[in-house]
Amino acid sequence: MRELAVGAQAAVVFPEYDLSPEARYPVAAEQNHAVARWVVTAGATKNLDGTRLAAAGDSVGGNTAAALTLMEKERCDVALVQQVLLYPVTDAAFDTPSYCLTPPQPTHLNVPAEAAHQLADAARSPPMTS
Question: Burial, 6: exposed, middle or buried (Cβ in 10 Å; 0-12, 13-18, 19+)?
């Protein structure tokens, strides 16, 4: 992210948000939305340009950035000018052919079967969850 920010001559804001499973959807999405609204309304106090706001993330952070973008599209209170998703988790069902055929890797999310079913159920509800 740092290289992307430097290349774009942009500041980067990394919001802190509550993690799952303790925090259930939509807690993290709402917390990220609050940060985006803060950048727009008060970011100038920290030399942040709220008119050039992008959402970016990798892996689960990519899912979070996508959810933020969908929220902004519905709410129209923060104008995002860019979305950058690096290998996002966009299907929490974990049942696509590529996911099932790929041998486990140290960097892969290893989800217990019960949790995967709960995620799959959640993924089929609001589109921002998956």
Answer: exposed
Q: What is the DSSP string of 36-54?
A: HHHHHHHGGGGT--TTSEE
Residue 71, both tokens: 């929220």
- pTM beyond 0.70: yes
Written as tens digits, the pLDDT of the chain (130 aa) is 778 888 888 888 888 889 888 888 889 889 999 999 999 999 999 999 999 899 998 888 888 899 999 999 999 999 999 999 988 877 767 777 877 787 766 555 555 444 554 555 555 556 665 5
Ranges of each domain in the chain: 1-90, 92-130
- Euclidean distance between CA atoms 45 and 114, whole angstroms: 46
